[in-house]
């Protein structure tokens, strides 16, 4: 590690550290049937301001469900779908190993407050990561470069010493614009590939 320029690794959550079993569309089908894709894309668009802490998402979800004729309470749907998260243990093992190796390990994710708080407490991310950068807490969402500037400030490190791992190309662009090292990866590519990416940046667990 002594020769490594990178001292911190900032990890995205969905697609990198965690997954929704069967995918979002399948999870919504019990409530809206074949309209699951349309419903989710509409509600994700409505959710965007909440990712930056502008408003409360549950009333918005309730209105969307009503619009689609769903009588199930929004809190019940939210718990069944949005909180249906499976941790990818191989990813978390890498996080833990990097932490033991002396690297700063941090979380950088777009979430509204309800899912974010679930991840912090129930999933134990506050205990796992040195610094957590949730969009609702930072007041700005990826891919805006300001997200990464604020994350680096919160970490207390020069952006050039941070490597960001994310599964969305526009977020990689935003991170690089802010001066971070950034690489595209998701868990379906395999953890050997993630290890190789880390090694390319001199990060060895």
TrEMBL record:
<dbReference type="InterPro" id="IPR036412">
    <property type="entry name" value="HAD-like_sf"/>
</dbReference>
<keyword id="KW-0378">Hydrolase</keyword>
<dbReference type="InterPro" id="IPR023214">
    <property type="entry name" value="HAD_sf"/>
</dbReference>
<protein>
    <submittedName>
        <fullName>Hydrolase of the HAD superfamily</fullName>
    </submittedName>
</protein>
<dbReference type="GO" id="GO:0016787">
    <property type="term" value="F:hydrolase activity"/>
</dbReference>
<dbReference type="InterPro" id="IPR006439">
    <property type="entry name" value="HAD-SF_hydro_IA"/>
</dbReference>
<dbReference type="Pfam" id="PF00702">
    <property type="entry name" value="Hydrolase"/>
</dbReference>
